[in-house]
Amino acid sequence: xxxxxxxxxxxxxxxxxxxxxxxxxxxxxxxxxxxxxxxxxxxxxxxxxxxxxxxxxxxxxxxxxxxxxxxxxxxxxxxxxxxxxxxxxxxxxxxxxxxxxxxxxxxxxxxxxxxxxxxxxxxxxxxxxxxxxxxxxxxxxxxxxxx
Length: 147
Fold this sequence. Notes:
There is one protein chain. By secondary structure, the chain is mainly alpha-helical. The chain has one domain: Winged helix-like DNA-binding domain superfamily/Winged helix DNA-binding domain (Arc Repressor Mutant, subunit A). Helix content is 61%, strand content 7%. The chain has 6 helices and 2 strands. The chain has helices spanning 16-35, 42-52, 59-66, 70-82, 104-124, 130-146; strands at 86-90, 98-102. Helix 1 crosses helix 5 (104-124) and helix 3 (59-66) packs across helix 4.
């Protein structure tokens, strides 16, 4: 297959990498604004959603799934714990390991947050057909697999 870009004609401002990064930044900013009345950030929602959907149950699993460094993740979990949305538990299998679970307050707020986040995502996809959105998801999944 032929390469998509070549160094001679490459224009960063129109490249997939730049555009993905810009779209991500705009999306996270919009989610932050939407969730602000609920005192949760987009980054905090990502953690809550990962734990709620059982995609991760430990700080290490979250770091891998969300691509945060361990120090930043610890600070994020500290904030969520202070808000009483998440709790740390010692692993019953390894005393050194920490597991995470949503508190009752966390379980109660995640569906409300999801509604807000879905609204923002739908706004970003305005003008796309459902077929185009599924195709876009497939393209992004293919890029992730290519990584």
